[in-house]
Amino acid sequence: MGKNILIVDDEVEHIDFASTVLEESGYVPIIAMDGNEGMKKVRAEKPDLILLDILMPERSGIGMYHELKRDDETKNIPVVIVTGVARGGHFDDLIVRQGQDLPAPDGYIEKPMNAEAMLKMVDDLVS
């Protein structure tokens, strides 16, 4: 049975794309539409990796990331940030300002996602 990958994103087209690519590669996609639902799925499903969008209604990916990394039960789950916001300074500054004791994410994927790059990153982090 494949490893569980939680996809947390409020955009259906991104969820559909990622879940199809993951499923075709033997992974089991789990879907959440915002950070609140994402945390519930983390607790219930115990995913092997999380693909986490940053900008979402209800609860942002940054809020969810902070909770994940501060909780002993979830802090070791690899998190890959999926964002349309340019990588680097902007996101890293948000982490530093909002949670100075937090580790950097395990990776970044820019939207629109590239199937090959996403699979390589997932494979590298869960195998």
Briefly, what is this?
The protein is α/β, with parallel strands linked by helices and 127 residues long.
Task: Give an account of the 3D structure.
This protein is of the alpha/beta class and 127 residues long. It has one domain (4-126): 3-Layer(aba) Sandwich (Rossmann fold), CATH 3.40.50.2300. 44% of the residues lie in helices and 19% in strands. The protein has helices at residues 12-24, 35-45, 61-70, 89-98, 115-126; strands at residues 4-8, 28-32, 49-53, 79-83, 107-110. Strands 2-1-3-4-5 form a five-stranded parallel sheet, with helices on both faces. The longest helix has 13 residues, at 12-24.
List segments where confidence is low: pLDDT < 50 over at least 5 consecutive residues: none
Distance between the termini: 13 Å
How large is the count of helical segments?
5
> What is the name of the CATH architecture?
3-Layer(aba) Sandwich
The order of strands across the largest sheet is 2-1-3-4-5
Task: Indicate the mean pLDDT.
Answer: 87
**Elements, N to C (H/E):** EHEHEHEHEH
Number of strands: 5
CATH top level assignment? Alpha Beta
Structural Rg:
13 Å
Overall geometry: globular
Task: State the CATH topology.
Answer: Rossmann fold
**What is the percentage of strand-forming residues?**
15-25%
Q: CATH superfamily assignment?
A: Response regulator
Tell me the count of domains. Answer: 1
User: Describe the biggest sheet?
Assistant: 5 strands, parallel
Assign a percent range to the helix content.
Answer: 40-55%
